[in-house]
Amino acid sequence: MSDTGEEWQVARRRKGAARKSNTLQPCAAAAACCQEELDVGKTVKRIRETVSELRYEDFLKDWKEQLLVAGSASLSEKRDTELSIDHVENGRDSRTSQHLECVCYGLGSFSSCVSARFQLAMLLLLLDAGQIPLKDCSVYDPAFTSGERDVLKELGLTVLTENEEGKRSATKPTLFYLMHCGKALYNNLLWKNWSTQQLPLMIIIGNSFNGMKDRAIEREFKQDYRYISQAVDVCEESVLPCPPRLIDVFSDTAVITFPSSSLNKLPQSTWTEPYEPQYQHCPDLEIIQREAVS
């Protein structure tokens, strides 16, 4: 690899202790320090070199195949729903070709953190594999510097300007790329799409829900992260392979989908008036919330 051993050590320390906010300060400080001097062209080139490096990794094939299987199922769910509605209303078949959209939250400061750069490179490879246009991939992280936002725009991605806190409604088949994000972000995303119509449109590539459950105190998990705790029993998870040398970049990652056949087994009361998550009692909230308007 082209990165120095020292750089990897920094990445390991950051990712290994990601749940402690004070450990993020050195990385954030480095990003702030280089904000004015970030060379957009050089950074874009470095990211594309990382893409080229990952392109020939053996494990990438499995990631692509898992995405294509999940994407095909999600698009099929959407087409079947549209066909059923249109057939009832108009007596005709209106199925058209579609592709996934993509939303990426919590990528991190990829200009100063090697793990974040590899995760960005993987995102670009998955967009290519899924034939998702770059402009149809929206990215956001409050940690992005203005220079990093320029880099993302140069790559062709759409940079969001508002902190959605993960509360994005999936109105069409959408890949959510959430690498090493906090539980609150996943919980918010599930809440916003908590219905038998919308959940099947979602594909999540991110932390395993089963892993979250296993590491949490059961009572607190059910109370604070209600939607993850319910989804873990009906979602389908396919664990993605990760080579040992990239364990701090891609560990504990899975493709998560929500088949209608599983959701329909739950009682109807499951979907009645889902309330918006509140986290007043969470001592270690793993999300940066948007500032309240005074």
Give the tags.
single chain; 294 residues; alpha/beta; seven-stranded mixed beta sheet; 12 helices; 45% helix; disordered N terminus
Sum up the overall morphology in one term: globular
* Biggest β-sheet: strands ordered side by side in the sheet: 3-2-1-4-5-7-6
Question: Rg from C-alpha positions?
Answer: 19 Å
Largest sheet features? 7 strands, mixed
Characterization of this structure:
This protein has 294 residues and is of the alpha/beta class. It has one domain. It has helices spanning 5-16, 25-33, 40-55, 59-90, 114-129, 146-155, 183-192, 209-215, 218-224, 226-231, 247-250, 260-263, and strands spanning 101-105, 137-140, 158-159, 174-178, 202-207, 236-239, 253-257. A 7-stranded mixed β-sheet has the order 3-2-1-4-5-7-6. The relative contact order is 0.13. Residues 1-26, 28-35, 83-89 and 92-96 have low confidence and may be disordered.
